[in-house]
Specification:
The chain is mostly helical. A three-stranded mixed beta sheet has the order 1-2-3. Helix 6 packs parallel to helix 16.
């Protein structure tokens, strides 16, 4: 049994390391199958793809292994939690049957599986890291290296295709084609992953006291610069907002440290990253046919144009309220049954793309209680940890997770995503184990 646990743990470390590559390979696979021939494609060109993508298949195999690991570790509280979620799902599907609506059982199964995958990641990595055997600093340093390399891979997956004029446009709508998400299948997914990892990798560089020699600190600086520029090129509204909040938080801390403690290291380190961003931008300007400045500016100004031509709600929420209104109507018509068990995911042709509302409306109050309580509990504990053991790193992690919570509330693509949801769950574990006073002794479940 001990040997089996060690084997599982090696595979879970491998999953953490190769996750960005999985998404990059999946994007290239999609690009080729959709007719990519060296130019740019848009979301309109993504048609006829198989339901089961390579990355999703790999992650489902890992899901089975993680479930087995949870049983091997005798995490019975987690088993009970998932039993409750399973019951909520059965009630939701039963509600669809009782209401006599047409629904897709496969859509119901796939959606709840995606949600459970993220929670299984949270449980698995919390148990695995607490039993790793290394001290807190040594374990955190190892994880920081993995995150730095992951951020580099993500940056390469956006910047290199952009330089070559390949990949996917971020947007293809009434305002034209704009932004570039490289070879990644979904712009929202990659944005969420980057906003989660950037503050944590960046703070690793900002905290360094000695950077005279080449080494991992400089890898963190380069990875942060690549991520900053990649998010500008991707050009989603949330990417711009995440960059502004992250830089403001880190810069604000640096200014406070300088004025109060006469320690200007954080601001100097932040300036170095911005210089690296400028250097990368100059490289893009030298080799790209299209100006990256025009690409960024177009993405920045379109939101204002939409707000002026239509309304602010449409500009900010990208028309999600239209789908939401339809779901609310179904929810009201099915009361009181739908209040308890929801309208079901399988009965919906389109998802709302607002995760918290999806949980409430698709699975009802019973489902929301069963599915969200652990996330809510960790959120409260993280806020308490921030004040109990305040540091630049704890601030950075709270910024990362706070941004993602806002993102999943307004734009979705996290709690039901095996890509962004993986990193959201992992960063919760990171925050609880490395940014709390109790450290590796912290109780998560």
């Amino acid at each position: 049994m001990v040997k089996a646990k060690k084997t599982f743990e090696k595979l879970f470390w491998l999953l953490l390391m190769v996750s960005p590559a999985l998404d990059l390979v999946n994007g290239i696979w999609s690009y080729v199958l959709c007719g990519g021939d060296g130019g740019m494609l848009s979301s309109r060109d993504i048609q006829g793809l198989p339901t089961l993508s390579p990355s999703f298949a790999v992650r489902m195999v890992m899901l089975v292994l993680m479930v087995a690991y949870i049983f091997l570790q005798k995490q019975w509280k987690a088993v009970l939690m998932f039993a409750g979620i399973g019951l909520a799902w059965v009630l939701s599907v039963g509600g669809e049957v009782l209401r006599g609506v047409s629904f897709s059982l496969s859509a119901d199964i796939q959606y709840i599986t995606r949600f459970c995958y993220c929670l299984v990641v949270l449980i698995t990595y919390s148990v695995m890291l607490k039993e790793d055997g290394r001290d807190r600093e040594g374990l955190r340093a190892a994880i920081d290296k993995v995150l730095s390399l992951s951020l580099m891979v993500l940056g390469v997956g956006v910047l290199v295709p952009y330089m070559l004029g390949m990949g996917f446009f971020t947007y293809a709508d009434r305002m034209g084609y704009r932004g570039c998400r490289g070879f990644f299948y979904a712009g929202n997914d990659i944005t969420a992953v980057m906003m989660l990892m950037l503050p944590v990798v960046l703070v690793g560089w900002l905290e360094q006291k000695d950077v005279k020699k080449a080494g991992w600190p400089w890898a963190q600086a380069v990875a942060s610069a690549m991520c900053l520029l990649s998010m500008l090129i991707i050009g989603t509204k949330t990417a711009f907002l995440a960059l502004a909040v992250t830089l403001a938080a880190m810069g604000g801390y640096g200014l406070w440290a300088g004025l109060r403690q006469k320690e200007w290291r954080v601001l100097r380190r932040l300036a170095v990253v911005l210089v690296l961003v400028l250097a990368l931008l100059l490289v893009l300007m030298a080799v790209c046919e299209d100006s990256p400045l025009e690409t960024i500016w177009k993405s920045l100004t379109v939101t204002q144009q939409i707000a002026e031509k239509e309304d602010l709600e449409t500009a900010v929420l990208s028309g999600r309220t239209t789908t939401l209104d339809k779901v609310i109507t179904q929810f009201r018509e099915g009361m009181p049954l739908t209040a308890l068990v929801g309208v079901g995911r399988g009965s919906q042709q389109k998802v709302i793309e607002m995760d918290l509302l999806e949980v409430v409306f698709y699975y009802g109050l019973l489902g929301a209680a069963a599915m969200l309580w652990l996330y809510l509990l960790q959120g409260v504990r993280m806020v308490i940890d921030l004040f109990r053991a305040f540091s630049l790193r704890s601030l950075a992690v709270c910024v990362a997770l706070g941004l993602c919570v806002g993102y999943l509330t307004l734009a979705g693509h996290t709690l039901f995503s095996v890509t962004a949801g993986f990193y959201f769950a992992f960063m919760i574990v990171y925050a609880r184990l490395f940014c709390s006073r109790d450290g590796l002794e912290t109780r998560i479940l």
